[in-house]
Amino acid sequence: MTNITKIMTTEVLTLTPEHSLSEARLMMMENRIRHIPIVNDNNELMGLISQRDVLAAEESSLYGIKKDLRLEREQNIKIADFYHNNLVTIPPQATVHQAALYLQKHKIGCLPVVEDNKLKGLVTDSDFVNVAINLLEVLSETEENLYS
Fold first, then answer.
1. Domain 4-146 fold
2. Would you call 114 helix, strand, or coil by DSSP?
3. Which of 33, 68, 97, 144 has the most CB atoms around it within 10 Å of its CB?
4. Distances (CA, A) of 65 to 39, 46, 73, 75, 79
């Protein structure tokens, strides 16, 4: 069975708890990502903030604030109050099948790959869409060869 390191993203964008909600939102928008691991200075995984968390925090924290004050207020809100620290993680030795089962069982869209408390990579539901596409292409080629 294929190891999770074959499909995980290793160049993961991260933030620390001291970063602002605005910085998280901007990083997500600029890089078209939906999850940002929160790490300390030693690259130890502390938590994760998702696009959904950022949107919910913006709505709850900024409700009723005039639009021109919104950005200023958002820059002062630290993500430390919003990220999740009770995470499901997986070791780099895990298989792709095990990771898929974790995502399905826990109904999550992102799975940090961690070894010795250090973030090694990230596997998302998008990675599994890529795996499915590749498998479908191989299956299609195999069927074409059988019937040619």
1. CBS-domain (3.10.580)
2. strand
3. 33
4. 31, 31, 9, 14, 19
How do residues 39-87 score in pLDDT, each as one tens digit?
Answer: 999 999 999 999 988 888 766 555 554 454 455 555 678 888 888 899 9
Cβ contacts of residue 120 below 8 Å, gap of 6+? 5, 8, 10, 92, 113, 114
pLDDT confidence band for 134 (50 / 70 / 90)? confident
The 8 Å CB, 24+ separation contacts for 131-138 are 131/7, 131/96
8 Å CB contact between 126 and 44: no
Where along the chain do its domains lie? 4-146
pLDDT score of 18: 92
AA letter at 127: D
